[in-house]
Amino acid sequence: MGLTCVVVGAGLTGLAAAWELTRAGADVVVLESERRAGGVVLTERRDGFLVEGGPDGFLVSEGDIQALARELGLGDRLVDQLAQGAMVWTGKRLEPLPLGRAAELLDIQGALDVGAQHAAPLHYGFRSLAGGMADIVEALVARLGPTVRTAQGVAGLAPSRRGWRLAVTGGSHVEAEAVILAVPAWAAARLVAAAGVLEARQLDGVAYAPSVTVSLAYRSEQITGAREGTGFVRAADADGSVRAASSA
Fold this sequence. Notes:
- There is one protein chain.
- The chain is an alpha/beta fold.
- Helix 1 runs parallel beside helix 6.
- A 6-stranded mixed beta sheet has the order 10-2-1-13-12-11. Strands 8-7-14-15 form a 4-stranded mixed beta sheet. It has a 3-stranded antiparallel beta sheet with strand order 5-9-6.
- It contains 8 helices and 15 strands.
């Protein structure tokens, strides 16, 4: 009996998809071109510091990721932000931003629907995990076990009698009834274009906003004055290339 599904990409999305399929009884394999799982989620724990190389949290309104954390036994590892509030850059100065408005200015729709979708004591701000965002990746990898195959990228995708045939780097092939492409749009475009999917050009046109993470540590006596809030967002009519910045 062959595979039910191959998930291409072992980022958080791919791992979560594989987890849900496995719980439903499907025979799944996750193929990841990098030597580690996690994608853009990268947490380093060094010299007593917890440093995030990718996302450092998620909106409180995102109930799905919190539900997943609880499914994985990480409910007691969910932590709220210590600082409250944020600032908005008007183009000339930073001004206080009302609670909950940051997500609205960034056009994050989920934050606007929190009242209708998720009942929680805190309806604004961010949450994370006590050991960093890698906590949830590590928990998924531990439960999926050999299902996750790193250093095995997908070089080609083509229809087959069973469903789909995937060419894996190194010369091997995998067949499955279904494929989930949990990869960036440009990577998905390359694979589906080779499979003859006409809509591949639309995927290739998806633009991503770049982000940069800079981590600096200071002794408490080196910081003068009170820090306010968790960062800032840029107003839509303000000039500048930085859309938002966060601090902890």
